[in-house]
Amino acid sequence: MIPTPSGTAASGRSERGRPMTNVELAEALCRVSATLSEARRVHLQAYGCLIPHVFMGDVLKRIGQCLGSRTMGAGAHDSTEVQAILAALERGMVDGERETRNVIAMSFTRDSELEIFFEELRSMMGPRTRAQLHGK
Question: Would you say the pTM of this structure is higher than 0.85?
């Protein structure tokens, strides 16, 4: 496994082989999205620490922005960003500790079912993430 600058391995697990934490998930999401990196900065400034369930709201909002811009003719960058965000979330569902999997399931996946872009998003979710949907 190749370590990343944050000390996590490319598989999503740390170099010590322990499960991915919420902080590591946020780092992975911020690596693939400059917008989420800025959202995390604002979040930390407002709250003083990472509140994962709140940050997942920012992640869901970003997915909606990207999917909305795709339908308006914006292109590959937003699509690539959505795919990278969803891949990071899927890694969290596979390699994350229990709390990390719970954050993704409750505050991203299940909340996504309420969004206008849900049908498009559902088809893009990985199998572990999609398995958390109420309607499945």
Answer: no
